[in-house]
Design a protein that fits this description.
Amidase signature (AS) enzymes, 11-stranded mixed beta sheet, 13 strands, 42% helix, globular
Length: 439
């Protein structure tokens, strides 16, 4: 775990070079089974040696992530030996001359970026028929549970990388479920910040309005630690008083009836802790907002490509048809739909942009008026919980829950920005409660 590694560096029990070398060799030996890493750094060992040299001279760690091996999604800018490919043959030689803001922060804190993760190409905005985790450059990412299981997307490789312990921390991006869903499919812990909370400058995403940064780890304590470095601590900690349970999400049909078991255990925990809860549907009629989200994404995707790569609109479409269509995809409908859209000119884009903030303000007021601290939901339930969180502008924590011998089922804990720390308190205490129930 991260704090243990930092302690071992401080006490000179190991060097950064030895740790990074071990992780790189592990990836080289095992990742052919998963295809989670699309670009492996050739300079990370040199960076590790530099950290060791500086520590030897100063006796101080560079930062709060000194020597921690990190994998980032392949759509995040780095000014190093790793291309920002978005998983695409079209961008296999695209090397930006600057870092994304999140990368600058990681480097400032002393982290070592050892590679970039495979992903659903262009954040799954190529074709309606594309498989999660597939890219023309990196191939098909495979779930940690086996190739017959869904890997989720589009931050597929990031989720697999932490679940296989190829790194301590993986960074992904999300427009609509691209962090939380692959985390849930691969038993990883994840935290998605609300849109615009953490800078996405230097990210080739889908929509600057909806895109957000997400963190993934193998351990909850690591996730909470990195979260605490990125956000200010709350001025007051009033504790959890009331939660909202998204009923529909637990109506998942599975042979072991695990979703209902988790719902029952959740309510037992809340009763034990004397936390009030209400159940229902957080957004009863969300469909009109999906349409607005689609309008915004179609409009902003082509802008994301032309502003963050070297392509013009015409050059990008030609390259996609030449390199992707037929050989890797039956169609490139999502790309063509975006580049032929005219919502900016018709005024529909601006109308959508103006409507979503009103929804967010309304729902924030609803949560505050009713004293709701957290929203609890099954991550992979039958409702679109990730869309709800992104539309409403909520922080979104995902925790895997292991019941009996079945595969883990993930629980979503969502909150406003000022209540996000409470989601970690709930997660820690609920997992301890489940552990005590099993002993």
């Amino acid at each position: 775990m991260i704090l243990e590694i930092l302690k071992s560096y401080q006490q000179e029990e190991c060097s950064v070079e030895s740790v990074i070398e071990r992780y790189i060799h592990f990836i080289m030996d095992e990742d052919s089974n998963y295809k989670s890493i699309i670009h492996l750094s050739q300079i990370s060992l040199q960076k590790a040696k530099e950290l060791d040299h500086n520590f030897k001279n100063t006796r101080k760690l560079k930062g709060r992530l000194h020597g921690i091996p990190v994998v980032i999604k392949a759509n995040i800018y780095t000014n190093d030996d790793l291309p920002t490919s978005c998983g695409s043959l079209i961008l296999k030689d695209f090397y930006p001359n600057r870092n994304a803001n999140i990368v600058d922060w990681l480097i400032h804190e002393g982290a070592i970026i050892i590679g970039k993760s495979n992903m659903s190409e262009f954040c799954n905005y190529v074709s309606n028929h594309a498989k999660d985790g597939f890219s023309s450059l990196g191939g098909q990412t495979k779930s940690v549970f086996g190739e017959n299981f869904s890997v989720g997307g589009s931050s597929s490789g990031s989720a697999v990388a932490v679940s296989t312990s190829f790194c301590c921390l993986a960074v992904g991006t999300e427009t609509d479920g691209s962090v939380v869903y692959p985390a849930a499919h691969n038993g990883a812990f994840a935290f998605k910040f609300k849109p615009q909370q953490v800078s996405t400058d230097g990210v080739i995403g889908i929509s600057s309005f909806f895109d957000s940064i997400g963190l993934m780890t193998h351990h909850l304590s690591d996730l909470e630690y990195v979260f605490s470095l990125l956000v200010d601590k709350p001025k007051m900690n009033s504790g959890i008083k009331k939660v909202f349970i998204q009923d529909k999400s637990f109506q998942l049909k599975d042979s072991e009836n695990s979703s209902q078991k988790i719902l029952l255990k959740t309510k037992e925990y809340l009763l034990q802790k004397e936390i009030e809860y209400v159940s229902g549907e957080f957004i009863e009629d969300i469909n009109p907002y999906f349409d607005m989200m689609d309008i915004i994404c179609q409009t902003e995707f082509k802008k994301a490509i032309t502003e963050n790569t070297d392509f013009s609109e015409e050059e990008f479409i030609r390259s996609c048809r030449r390199e992707l269509l037929g050989s890797h995809y039956h169609d490139i409908h999502e790309i063509e739909r975006s580049f032929s859209s005219n919502f900016q000119e018709s005024g529909h884009y601006q109308k959508a942009i103006n409507t979503i903030p009103a929804l967010r303000e309304s729902k924030a007021k609803q949560l505050k008026t009713n004293g709701i601290d957290l929203i609890i939901s099954l991550t992979l339930g039958p409702d679109d919980i990730a869309s709800t969180a992104n539309l409403v502008g909520l922080n979104h924590l995902v925790i895997p829950i292991q019941l009996d011998e079945t595969l883990p089922i993930s629980l979503s804990i969502m909150a406003d920005e000022d209540k996000a720390h409470l989601s970690f308190i709930f997660a820690e205490e609920f997992l301890e409660f489940l552990k005590s129930e099993q002993t």
